[in-house]
Specification:
- The chain folds into two domains: 15-64, no CATH class; 66-146, OB fold (Dihydrolipoamide Acetyltransferase, E2P), CATH 2.40.50.
- It is built from one helix and eight strands; from the N terminus they run H-E-E-E-E-E-E-E-E.
- It has one helix spanning 21-28; strands spanning 32-37, 43-44, 59-64, 67-76, 90-97, 103-109, 122-130, 137-144.
- Strand 1 (32-37) and strand 2 form a beta hairpin.
- The longest helix is centred in the N-terminal third of the chain and has 8 residues, at 21-28.
- The two termini are 19 Å apart.
């Protein structure tokens, strides 16, 4: 697969506090890892030092299926960064993950940017590796499922 994301954008890296490192490491291994509380077993995203549900500090990361449904979407027509000047339109989706307590995560939707979009449509994650960057990183995109 050719890279969906054009060069020239800053490389995403784990936060300095390490809070999301397991998420980024998981993507490199083609796994979607999200935080899950060891006390109440609730899932959450974005990452925090305590559980969104029970306030426990016993949170860790677990792998979950990179499959969900479109909860919301936006078709972007105007570039938000100079490196995206010739990459439009494109579609950003907010994907709800039923296997992970219905938490939601944002990503690009692959395919025709003018495709019809439907709330609730099933999508599957696609891992895009950027090994030529330092540090190397992987992005999670989404594509429609039949």
């Amino acid at each position: 697969m050719s890279n969906y994301l054009h060069s020239g954008l800053p490389s995403p890296v784990a936060a300095g506090d390490g809070l999301d490192r397991q998420f980024w490491d998981g993507l490199r291994e083609e796994q979607l890892r999200l935080q899950r509380c060891r006390s109440c077993r609730g899932w959450q995203w974005g990452p925090e030092f305590c559980c969104h549900h029970c306030r426990s500090f016993e949170v860790g990361y677990e792998a979950t299926a990179a499959e969900g449904t479109i909860y919301s979407h936006q078709r972007v027509w105007h570039p938000v960064h100079p490196a995206l000047a010739d990459q439009g339109p494109y579609v950003i989706v907010l994907v709800e993950l039923p296997m992970a307590g219905n938490v939601r995560i944002v990503g690009n939707l692959l395919g025709d940017p003018r495709q019809p979009l439907q709330i609730g449509a099933p999508v599957t994650g696609v891992f895009e590796h950027h090994n030529d960057h330092e540090p190397a990183f992987t992005l999670l995109h989404w594509k429609g499922r039949d």
